[in-house]
Amino acid sequence: LLLNEQNGVMKKDYQLLADKTALGLVMQSVGIPMVETSCVSKGDYHDLILALQKDAALFCKLRSGSRGESAFRVEKNTIGMSGQTLAGHNLHNEHNIRLAWQELTRKGEVLIQPYMQNHPLLESLDSEVMTLRVITRLTETGIATWFGFLYVQVPGDKIDREYWLLSVDLNSGLLCDAFDHWNTKQAIQTNQ
Predict the structure, then answer these.
(1) Cα(75)–Cα(63) distance, rounded to whole angstroms?
(2) 150 and 86 in contact (C-beta within 8 Å)?
């Protein structure tokens, strides 16, 4: 799908990587599962309202952003809607949601996706923000998984948004602590 340096990386390859919608469509076309996109919005708040009619909780992020810049979660509740930014700011009501939406949409097109709840086995990592990256390669017989990493936002870090990097054992699916972050966390919990 994407060429590497040896095979002649091209500008269009970088453009594809920067566009989460286009990349998702290419990945899905070859059988790689991707998070569904409910809508790509150019800033119309009505797009968010319509998406909330389909899904009880959504995640909104820039189509071509990185590190969760201005991204936020929104969900329906008994008083209408509420949410939280990746920076940890609570969005208590629709007014706060509108302000977060305006801040996000000023920066570019927005992906509205169903909010993905972390698996209960990952609760011990004590982080709501996780990103799974699986690197694959095209072989003569199809797509082969090369390696995988789980990026876990450091618990309590809502400002710098630093991440732990856990490698994924491709045979078992088990997480391996690539840089001793887990042991550091365990030591911190033991000392409290």
Answers:
(1) 20
(2) no
Distance CA 95, CA 138 (A): 47
- Residues in CB range of 126: below 8 A, 6 or more apart: 155, 185
Residue 59's nearest CA partner among 81, 92, 37 is 37
Q: Specify the length of the chain in residues.
A: 192
pLDDT, one tens digit per residue, over 21-66 is: 777 777 778 777 777 888 899 999 999 999 999 999 999 998 887 6
Which two structure tokens, joined as six digits, stand for 190? 């033991």
Residue 8, classed as helix, strand or coil, is: coil
Residue 192 confidence class, pLDDT cut points 50, 70, 90: very low
Give CA–CA dist 73/57, Å, rounded.
Answer: 7
The values of phi and psi at residue 28, to 5°, are: -65, -35
Q: How far is CA 12 from the centre of its chain?
A: 23
Coil, strand or helix: which one is 94?
helix
Q: How far is CA 69 from CA 4, 100, 135, 140, in A?
A: 27, 11, 23, 38
* Choice between 139 and 72, residue whose per-residue pLDDT is larger: 72
